[in-house]
Amino acid sequence: MPQHVCNGAVTMCTFGVAPGSLVILPINRVMTSSQPAATIMDFVPLENVMPFGMCMSPANPEVAAATAAAMGVLTPMPCIPMTVAPWAPGAATVMEAGIPVLDSVSMLMCIWGGEISITEAGQFTENVP
Predict the structure, then answer these.
(1) Does residue 65 sit in helix, strand or coil?
(2) What is the distance in angstroms between the CA of the first residue and the CA of the last residue of the chain?
(3) What is the pLDDT of residues 28-57, one digit of tens each?
(4) Are 115 and 83 a contacting pair, CB within 8 Å?
(5) What would the pLDDT profile of 91-111 be if each residue is shown by its tens digit?
(6) Tally of domains within the chain
(7) pTM score, whole prediction
(8) Domain membership flag for residue 40
């Protein structure tokens, strides 16, 4: 069952070597699990989508240059996500400020060929005795 995504969600890129995080600013003032809720428009690199450690995509110019310098041995370089389009598909029936909310089955594409997915939606509950 898809979950709605909020600030602190854990993300992963198919060409990254480490998990990243999703940062949601409280612009729309909608909260879920005491955190700002995400929409499909929260895709801005280094503002919403944080790096994934090192990038291994041969389509990334920095990786390609480092690999060429290493005589063809794939050489990962620091990840800088390059996302230019919204998350897809989003929750079709739930809106936040007129924009579909982001759910845990949505995907985001990086122009270097990576597919970014949500591994943890960021909704955590506390067990208070």
Answers:
(1) helix
(2) 28
(3) 788 888 899 999 999 999 999 999 999 999
(4) no
(5) 989 998 899 999 999 999 999
(6) 1
(7) 0.91
(8) yes
Q: Distance (Å, rounded) from C-alpha 3 to C-alpha 112?
A: 27
Q: What is the pLDDT of residue 63?
A: 98
- Do 15 and 55 form a contact (C-beta atoms < 8 A)? yes
Decide which of 34 and 16 is more confident: 16
Number of residues written out for the chain: 129
| Pair 125, 28: CB distance under 8 Å | no
Tokens encoding 43: 């895709």
What's the domain range around 39? 1-52+78-124
116 within some domain: yes
Within the chain, what is the greatest distance between any pair of CA atoms? Answer: 59
Partners of 96 in the β-ladder: 99
Spatial strand order in the sheet of 10-13 = 20-21, 10-13, 115-120, 107-109
Q: What is the gyration radius of the CA atoms in the chain, in angstroms?
A: 16
**Burial, 103: exposed, middle or buried (Cβ in 10 Å; 0-12, 13-18, 19+)?**
buried
Q: Is residue 57 part of a domain?
A: no
Which DSSP letter does residue 42 get? -
Residue 94 falls inside a structural domain? yes
Helix (H, G, I), strand (E, B) or coil at 38: coil
